[in-house]
Amino acid sequence: MKKALITGVTGQDGSYLAELLLDKGYEVHGIKRRASLFNTGRIDHIYQDPHADNPRFILHYGDLTDTSNLTRILQQVQPDEVYNLGAMSHVAVSFESPEYTADVDAIGTLRLLEAIRFLGLEKKTRFYQASTSELYGLVQETPQRESTPFYPRSPYAVAKLYAYWITVNYREAYGMYACNGILFNHESPRRGETFVTRKITRALANISQGLEHQLFLGNLDALRDWGHARDYVHMQWLMLQQDKPEDFVIATGRQYSVRRFVEIAANELGIEITWQGQGVDERGLVASIHGDRAPGVVVGQPIVAVDPQYFRPTEVETLLGDPSRARERLGWEPTTSFEAMVQEMVAHDLDTARRHKLLASHGYNVALSLE
Ligand code: NDP
Ligand code: GDR
């Protein structure tokens, strides 16, 4: 039985990857952080009783800032594969906490690689690094492919640049099977609530039920290549199953603006919006409501507004990936379309909003869960 260790197992990708590896018969170890509240909501459905005979899903407390902790876990688990998905992954927040971001995202990667080497596991343990399209930042070529030069535009992206190159360096210097997946944005109903897609689907679902009135966003014109996280974790696994380690761009090759994402998500809820104003005066006005999915919305009411607090000091305006190499060498195709992904996210958040509305109508306080 193969053993895998996942850092960031409690995150969006970690949860889908753990499911995938358990399905494939792996023994899966995950590193979770100690928090004052439970932070395992995304993996509770696959939890296994540690007292049972031979559990295949095992959680360890740990942190990417803690060398001795990482070394001890690696020594204990002796994994065949390590997936380094743990990170301070929010680009905007990285401007607020640049040093911590560097410690976790850059040096955390070095700590893992060095621990593998220190323990003499460099010929046994394969290593996947969660690299990112944010490396392209101020884009030098469109679409972006493996050979496109990097130009990071945030403390997050600069930290990830270090992680990218230290992974390449350990591969070349020590012959490790170590590779980078340069993944473009990928989303799902499990996406963190402060990333733009989930922020939109969650807020619009709440607005449709009259639980919220307005959604505040930053740059509506940013362009992204959005895929589904379930497809992308399959790719992470595939990258560690090849004869030799290589870096791959994983993307859909299609691009949409944040504004278009709002329109498509709203339309899913039976809301058609028209845009008025420009820049920070921009408002998304409700032009019409069709069907019965948005009983809480008043026609003509503005439901989207731009708030400059969500603008970034340096923005990544446009990202579009070219996944040809992954298609040719790994036979990979995304299975979920952009439209199906938005539908799935909206349906999930509408279901939650309806339950909150029901609870509120019976006197329960849903404020906490709407924060
Ligand atoms: P999430 O933010 O959903 O998950 C991040 C995970 O990292 C969480 O489990 C989090 O724990 C954990 N983590 C944060 N800080 C630490 C730390 N100091 N020590 C150990 N673990 C830590 O990210 P995603 O699942 O979306 O992304 C997975 C990886 O892929 C990240 O590295 C991200 O940067 C990268 N990536 C993501 C893309 C995307 O579009 N989703 C695209 C390209 C790259 P906790 O739950 O306790 O917060
Ligand atoms: P990104 O994702 O920065 O691409 O990083 P995010 O969803 O945060 O932003 C995408 C674009 O939307 C614009 N935007 C807003 N973003 C947020 N979060 N909130 C808003 O209100 C808002 N309004 C407009 C942003 O300016 C940006 O242009 C994600 C993360 O998962 C990274 O970890 C990963 O490496 C990259 O994707 C690929």
From TrEMBL:
Name a GO molecular-function annotation.
GDP-mannose 4,6-dehydratase activity
**To which species is this protein native?**
Massilia agri
Pfam annotation, one family? GDP_Man_Dehyd
Q: What is the protein's known function?
A: Catalyzes the conversion of GDP-D-mannose to GDP-4-dehydro-6-deoxy-D-mannose.
Q: Belongs to which family?
A: Belongs to the NAD(P)-dependent epimerase/dehydratase family. GDP-mannose 4,6-dehydratase subfamily.
Q: Which UniProt keywords apply?
A: Lyase, NADP
Domain (NAD(P)-binding) spans: 5-345
Annotated protein name in UniProt:
GDP-mannose 4,6-dehydratase
